[in-house]
Amino acid sequence: MQQSVESLVRLLESYRGRDKIIRTVCYGSQLVGGVLTRKAETDVSSQRLGKSLLLFSAQLSHCRTVLRLFDDLSMLAYSHSYGLGASDEDKGIRWISVLTNVADQLYYPCEHIAWAADAEIIQVKSDKWWLFCTVLWGTSLLLGIIRSLRVLLLLKRKLKRQERDEEGSSRQTGLHRQIRGELLSVLSSAADLSNAIHWMPPGLLWAGRFPSWLVGLLGTTSSVIGLIQMSSSDS
């Protein structure tokens, strides 16, 4: 128990870890709030609790938006350090990663403008800027899925080659671990991409059709996977 508390404290001490915790609580609150407002139509107290959780979720989402006002430079530093990728890296992965970095970099100023418009700091309509944000986020997620599928293909080829050459089991264990990590990344990105499409304008696939609890479920799934991956990389 003490070890779990210490791990949680370490997560909260870092910006990245704190954001993942806030994200998980945000979507978890939306999931529970959505279920309560949907299932407890005759129970006034449950309805009130469900609405309060949905409002709490919305405030946490706003909190994350404000915190991301300062993410541009760190994203720019990462994009600059990656550049066009290492020369020995797979060419497909390199260019997918570069395009992902471009989409992620453009996301932040669009979100800042949308936030400033909602806060009436600037006199523009925020709707189109939130749409740009959603499109860029969805593009980044789709590219991430394609990248993970490419990595999975290369890892499986490498694993088959090692099995054929009867190389050490420790190397194969490492490859299996990487494969599991990429599969989790695909699942996480697919869950977020489903929500991104839901927030697109009506008429595109299932845009606008998800109930609150489903949005919360998909977001909670991707958030928990993110926490697992972060914990694994730290350990």
Automatic annotation (TrEMBL):
Signal peptide: none
Annotated source species: Oryzias sinensis
Protein localization: Peroxisome membrane
Biological process annotations from GO: peroxisome fission
Pfam families named among the record's database cross-references: PEX11 (PF05648)
Domain of life: Eukaryota
Membrane-traversing stretches: 129-155
Assigned GO CC terms: peroxisomal membrane
Chief place of localization: membrane
The protein's name in its UniProt record: Peroxisomal biogenesis factor 11 gamma
